[in-house]
Write a structure and sequence with these properties.
With about 350 residues, this protein is α/β, with parallel strands linked by helices. The strands form two sheets. Strands 3, 4, 5, 6, 7, 8, 9, 10, 11 and 12 form a ten-stranded mixed β-sheet that branches.
């Protein structure tokens, strides 16, 4: 949804990273700051992963509702779904843990709505990872355009009736806690070439969700806001010697490398005149924190799907909003003038 600055049409894209309820609350702070700047309803494109899909999906399904952000905050303060979904899925012969996860999202956030119900809001991507091809697999809706699902290698198909809850569940099905979402050929016909498709957490491919925002031919943007509430790699004073834990640490190191390369890619594209102006920040950022210690406290909160207490919620919302505000003031002050 475009707007004008000095008579020139502008478009804003927002990437909401993975990182469980912690990331969702961090993104809530970003969304509240955008609202205070009169920019929330001007978002043209959202790209969401895992916890970011919870935040973005709640915003999109309640687009235009003044209470939409309050609904998200209430959900994050009062719901804990990971343990309940895991236990129930283990003992239920008819539904998997992933089914239980999707059911909880549907009950508490989406009430049976499908991708077609998002047509009146901004274009939104719910990103997952296709284990059959190793590619990003997306569910996309909104922006007055067709609802679709798919990926660049196998293809894209219409998906107006696909439940939002299942798209968000696929995006947030972090292994090994939740199994992947299986799509048969009847759900996704191009999947017949690999028998069937299984979708896991979007963070496996791109935990910041930036890839759809870089497709300038399909999604032209002027500003690219990247809210990274994921788990930054931390210095370990007592590194492990256990084989199993070494594997986990190795994956964390690879994720950190991908994160750094994504930031470089965005910056270089912009400098080459091929991408939007980037405004990015991570949860461990010190520059722009509202109060000393906010970055350390926020980064130490677990990235699971358990409800947040008052102290956790307050610092995450404050920190996310403050970091966005500092980046706008420094790199795009013209955006702050929109609220004036």
């Amino acid at each position: 949804m475009s707007f004008k600055i000095d008579g020139v049409e502008k478009r804003i894209g927002l990437a909401l990273s993975g990182g469980g309820f912690r990331a969702a609350a961090f993104h809530l702070g970003v969304l509240r700051r955008l609202q205070s700047l009169n920019l929330l309803d001007k978002l043209d494109l959202l790209s969401c992963v895992s916890g970011g899909s919870i935040a973005g999906g709640t915003l999109a399904v309640n687009w235009g509702d003044p209470a939409c952000l309050d609904k998200l905050e209430s959900y994050l303060r009062t719901r804990s779904i990971a343990v309940a979904s895991v236990v129930a899925g283990v003992f239920d012969p008819f539904e998997t843990r992933l089914d239980k996860l999707a059911g909880s999202y549907d009950r508490d956030l989406f009430q049976g709505k499908t991708l077609s119900s998002l047509r009146g809001g901004p274009r939104i991507y719910f990103n997952s990872t296709n284990l059959a091809t190793g590619n990003m697999f997306f569910f996309v809706a909104g922006g007055g355009k067709a609802e679709e699902m798919g990926e660049h290698e196998l293809g894209v198909v219409p998906a107006p009736d696909f439940p939002i809850s299942r798209a968000v569940a696929a995006s947030s099905a972090f292994p090994p806690v939740f199994p992947p979402l299986r799509l048969s050929a009847s759900d996704y016909p191009p999947g017949a070439s690999v028998e069937y498709v299984t979708l896991t957490d979007g963070g496996v491919y791109d935990n910041m969700g930036v890839n759809p925002l870089l497709r300038t031919e399909r999604n032209p943007l002027d500003y690219l806001i990247i809210s990274d509430g994921g788990k930054p790699f931390a210095l370990d004073e007592h590194p492990t010697e256990s084989g199993a834990v070494v594997l986990k640490a190795s994956l964390n190191i690879m994720m950190e490398q991908i994160r750094g390369l994504e930031f470089d890619r965005i910056q270089h594209r912009h400098l080459a005149g091929k991408g939007a102006r980037p405004l990015w920040f991570s949860i461990n950022s010190l520059e722009g924190e509202s109060q000393p210690g906010d970055s350390t406290f926020a980064s130490a909160i677990s990235t699971n799907l358990k409800k947040l207490n008052d102290a956790e919620m307050n610092v995450l919302v404050r920190h996310g909003g403050s970091l966005l505000g500092s980046r706008i003031d420094k790199y795009a002050p013209e955006l702050a003038a929109v609220a004036a």
